[in-house]
Automatic annotation (TrEMBL):
<dbReference type="InterPro" id="IPR013727">
    <property type="entry name" value="2CSK_N"/>
</dbReference>
<feature type="domain" description="HAMP">
    <location>
        <begin position="191"/>
        <end position="242"/>
    </location>
</feature>
<feature type="transmembrane region" description="Helical">
    <location>
        <begin position="17"/>
        <end position="36"/>
    </location>
</feature>
<protein>
    <recommendedName>
        <fullName>histidine kinase</fullName>
        <ecNumber>2.7.13.3</ecNumber>
    </recommendedName>
</protein>
<dbReference type="Pfam" id="PF00512">
    <property type="entry name" value="HisKA"/>
</dbReference>
<dbReference type="InterPro" id="IPR050428">
    <property type="entry name" value="TCS_sensor_his_kinase"/>
</dbReference>
<dbReference type="GO" id="GO:0016301">
    <property type="term" value="F:kinase activity"/>
</dbReference>
<dbReference type="InterPro" id="IPR003594">
    <property type="entry name" value="HATPase_dom"/>
</dbReference>
<keyword id="KW-0808">Transferase</keyword>
<dbReference type="Pfam" id="PF02518">
    <property type="entry name" value="HATPase_c"/>
</dbReference>
<keyword id="KW-0436">Ligase</keyword>
<feature type="domain" description="Histidine kinase">
    <location>
        <begin position="250"/>
        <end position="463"/>
    </location>
</feature>
<keyword id="KW-0418">Kinase</keyword>
<dbReference type="Pfam" id="PF08521">
    <property type="entry name" value="2CSK_N"/>
</dbReference>
<dbReference type="GO" id="GO:0016874">
    <property type="term" value="F:ligase activity"/>
</dbReference>
<keyword id="KW-0472">Membrane</keyword>
<feature type="transmembrane region" description="Helical">
    <location>
        <begin position="171"/>
        <end position="190"/>
    </location>
</feature>
Length: 466
């Protein structure tokens, strides 16, 4: 049987699963990178703010009033702690309501007046760097008045940014490591998901074309509707095939037999009557019955061949013996017109793997054509030989031959333009090509250079004899 053309392959479920898995993982890695960077920045800023806050308090604590003068004791140890993270730059300023007392006079001041217990934190750009600043107010008794002194301490945060960057980069590397792992994991997961589908497809493919039992292969719940639909199709196909089988066999009996009966009756009536007008009529009747009986036979044979090629069951067939028996049955018709039928190569068995009934019908059609299109007293030769791995059955005649302009004569109901006077339905060669295709062989019809036609049927030899 010819394998049905597969529908064009769509997307691959497996590939789609792997891609989706990998794309999702990549998205997660990017999200992880930014989340870790954000968290690391927050954590390091909080801890550095604590240090900066402690530093500004200790600077504030170093302010004293000595004999109506302000004195500042700068805590250098604290400053070196601030720079410990990286090569940070540190700025400070002490100012009163009257102006700068000491330090950098243009250092950005806080927007709000800071309290004297907990420092105020803010950020500002200063001298080309981004600074994090902490400010504090200290009250000092200077003689009779209380002086409010704002202490501002700022530092660059190069170290913090570097730490956040490094941490996020490490997280990204770990994420990429996971990503590399996701591809094999995704492949494995996709395979596990697809495996039941593969198994089901395998189970269905493994069965022969004749096996029309319902598919009862265990399948996951998601495939149950598909299995139901498949079994529905199988059941319908089984019903249709049964119907076709019944029709072919019943029709063969109920059409062929009565037709030949009617024909015999008409022929007998023709022999018995002497009335010329009635004889004319009976002759037309016999011819019409002959034609319809021939068409019915060919149509039924064609249906049988289609049915059997669908249900193709190959078994060893000896083509030599089969060709011999078909030749004998055709010879009876040939002898009536003095056509000599010869055979070559039938003395050796020639086993092919196929359906004997189909091959017989094909051979009968080829020989029938050779006889039908030969003149009285013509010659028909059947030659059987082996050609490569094929059995080659060649039937040559010296008949009317083919007309060069005629298109492919193997099509349904196609007949040559030179055969109008010969009864025929145009299905014989369709049947032959169908049989050849079902067996994996081929059929050719070619004119012979001298006179007549050469029909050649190739059928693959069974492997044991090839
Ligand atoms: N041996 C042959 N010699 C000449 N023409 C042939 C020969 N074999 C086939 N043909 C041509 O091929 C055409 C198709 O052949 P095919 O056997 O299909 O039809 P048919 O013989 O006309 O009808 P039937 O269905 O009754 O066999 C024929 O009508 C004829 O024109
Ligand atoms: Mg024919």
């Amino acid at each position: 049987m010819k394998p049905a053309a597969a529908s064009p392959a769509g997307f691959s479920l497996r590939r789609r699963l792997v891609w989706q898995f990998a794309a999702l993982s990549l998205l997660l890695v990017v999200a992880l990178f930014f989340a870790v960077r954000f968290a690391a920045e927050r954590a390091s800023r909080a801890s550095q703010d604590a240090v900066l806050g402690a530093a500004v308090i200790s600077v504030g604590d170093g302010i004293r009033a000595v004999e109506e003068e302000l004195e500042l004791d700068l805590p250098y140890a604290t400053f070196s702690m601030l720079g410990a993270m990286g090569n940070e730059r540190i700025f400070y300023s002490l100012s009163t309501g009257d102006g700068l007392v000491t330090g950098y006079d243009d250092l950005p001041q806080p927007q709000v007046t800071p309290g004297d217990l907990s420092p105020v934190f803010y950020g500002a750009d200063y001298r080309g760097s981004r600074l994090r600043l902490a400010a504090l107010t200290r009250r000092v008794l200077l003689g009779q008045r209380i002086e409010e002194i704002t202490v501002v301490l700022g530092q660059t945060r190069y170290g913090q940014a570097a730490i956040a960057r490094d941490t996020a980069r490490s997280a990204a590397w770990i994420g990429l490591g996971f990503l590399a792992l996701t591809v094999p994991v995704a492949l494995w997961a996709a395979r596990a998901v697809i495996r039941p589908v593969d198994r089901l497809a395998e189970a269905v493919t493994r069965r022969g074309p004749q096996d029309l039992r319902p598919v009862l292969h265990p399948a996951p719940r998601e495939l149950v509707p598909l299995m139901g639909a498949l079994n529905g199709f199988i059941a319908r196909l089984r019903g249709a095939l049964q119907l076709a089988e019944t029709f072919i066999f019943e029709a063969a009996h109920r059409i062929r037999t009565p037709l030949s009966l009617v024909r015999t009756e008409a022929e007998m009536a023709l022999a018995e009557t002497t009335d010329e007008a009635l004889r004319q009529r009976l002759r037309r009747m016999v011819r019409a019955i002959g034609e319809s009986s021939r068409s019915a036979n060919q149509i039924l044979d064609h249906a049988m061949v289609l049915y059997r090629s669908d249900q193709f069951m190959a078994e060893p067939v000896d083509v030599a013996a089969l060709a011999g028996s078909v030749l004998r049955s055709v010879r009876a018709v040939a002898e009536m017109r003095d056509i000599e039928m010869r055979a070559e190569g039938l003395d050796q068995p020639c086993p092919v793997l196929g359906d004997a009934r189909m091959i017989e019908v094909a051979l009968r059609n080829i020989l029938d054509n050779a006889v039908k299109f030969s003149p009285d007293e013509g010659n028909v030769l059947l030659r059987l030989s082996r050609d490569g791995g094929m059995a080659r059955i060649e039937v040559t005649d010296q008949g009317r031959g083919l007309v060069a302009g005629d298109a492919d004569l193997t099509g349904r109901f196609r007949r040559g333009s030179n055969v109008g006077d010969v009864v025929g339905s145009g299905l014989g060669l369709t049947i032959v090509t169908e049989v050849a295709a079902a067996h994996g062989g081929r059929f050719t019809l070619s004119p012979r250079p001298e006179k007549g036609t050469c029909a050649t049927l190739f059928l693959p030899l069974s492997s044991a004899s090839a």
